[in-house]
Amino acid sequence: MERRTKIPTHRLLSAFIARSGLAVAFALSVPAQARDDAMTPIATPAQPTAIALGTGTLAGAAAPESWHRQYGSLFARNVVVATVTPFLPDPARASGTAVIVAPGGGFRTLSMENEGWDVARALAAKGVAAFVLKYRLKQTPRDMPGFERSMAEMFSTTAARPPRPVMDAIMADLARQITDSRAAFALIRRRAAEWHVDPNRIGMIGFSAGAMLTMATTLAGQDARPAFIADIYGPLDRVTVPANAPPLFVALAADDPFFAHSGFGLIDAWKAAGRPVEFHLYEQGGHGFGMYRKDTTSTGWFDAFVRWLDMHGMLQPAR
């Protein structure tokens, strides 16, 4: 039997990036007034409503969790204990639908504000209970210069050999993160009555690396069973679609330097399997646009997502 060497996820990301740098990618997606790309360390913010998921600490971790500000937003890194933070709607507006929100950041950092809290607040305003997942990350150097160098290396190297099917390798590389996301589903179901959530209407939305985790969680099967999923500027490689695959919403910019040039195999696979899929390909937006307000039509992804949820009956209280 051929022996396959597991390719680390950051190498897989790099294969998509080719010669595009991190600063270039975000310059395409962040509004001009927020383009301060300096990584400025900040004190770890208070997170009084964060709930530990009980999946353990990151074995062998040498660096503690730390935070920084970049592009006008807050980022976490060296996360060693996974948590979920609830953002609950006004009970008078609650639909019973819930969404686990998985920020991105190359599995070395998490865009907690632009792709986490801001998304969750917007969902709660629509009557959807949102839960921001702070999943465990790959370790990076404690000091900021060392961290900056590690990020630059991740976004400049390419895989040593052609990667095997991307989701195959990602599934093997994300065991800890999949455990974290499964624990989030389990926690929400256990406390569904308290949070006024229908345990059969819990979905997941992910951004970039968070989109990879969303897809990996879905394909892993077992007890997560998302009612719907959303892939926001994640890879669109073909996968083997489960027979009971949930409805899929996808948003990507045509000028995304990471994932816009590898075809749309994921969309084709979902369609071929006869499963519901909606795909928005925006002319401009770059990578990482999230909840940033800007002049490109990619800003409309959230409104489109909410309309899609409504079309699937997820904004109406369950009967």
UniProtKB/TrEMBL annotation:
Keywords: Hydrolase, Signal. Residues 114-293 form the Dienelactone hydrolase domain. Residues 1-34 form the signal peptide. GO terms for molecular function: hydrolase activity. It comes from the Bacteria. Pfam families: DLH (PF01738). This is Alpha/beta hydrolase. It comes from Sphingomonas hylomeconis.
